[in-house]
From TrEMBL:
Residues 68-99 are annotated as: Disordered. Pfam families: Focal_AT. InterPro entries: Focal_adhe_kin_target_dom_sf (IPR036137), Focal_adhesion_kin_target_dom (IPR005189). The keyword Transferase applies. Residues 77-93 have a biased composition (Polar residues). Residues 1-60 form the Focal AT domain. The lineage of its organism: Eukaryota, Metazoa, Ecdysozoa, Arthropoda, Hexapoda. GO terms for molecular function: protein tyrosine kinase activity. Keywords: Kinase, Transferase. GO terms for biological process: signal complex assembly. It comes from the Eukaryota. One of its GO terms (cellular component) is focal adhesion. This is Focal Adhesion Kinase. The keyword Amino-acid biosynthesis does not apply.
Length: 99
């Protein structure tokens, strides 16, 4: 549930930022900037509320070792990951093959 709220708020912030950039050289710039700041504030408050819930749960269960619970018990990978290049649109491109 929390990831849906944060994802929706992040999408709203991205859209507000896109509009603010699009109208940056017009008289509407200040209105879109205010909208972007309002969306950023909503996202920040939701993130703070999520962290408050996590802190509350940690206080209720002080006997749990959270750090060890979050560590992965996976075996190390033997193959090295293939590096990826990103273009300006953040789309993953395959690296060029070298002989």
């Amino acid at each position: 549930m929390a990831h849906q709220v944060l994802s929706k708020d992040m999408a709203a912030l991205v859209e507000a930022m896109r509009l603010a950039i699009h109208y940056c050289r017009t008289t509407l710039h200040h209105d879109y900037t205010k909208s972007m700041l309002a969306a950023a504030h909503v996202l920040a408050m939701d993130a703070k509320n999520l962290l408050d819930v996590v802190d509350c749960i940690r206080e209720r269960h002080p006997h749990i070792d959270w750090k060890s619970a979050l560590q992965l018990d996976e075996e190390p990978q033997t193959s090295s990951p293939i590096p990826q290049n990103l273009d300006s649109q953040n789309q993953v491109l395959n690296p060029p093959l070298t002989p």
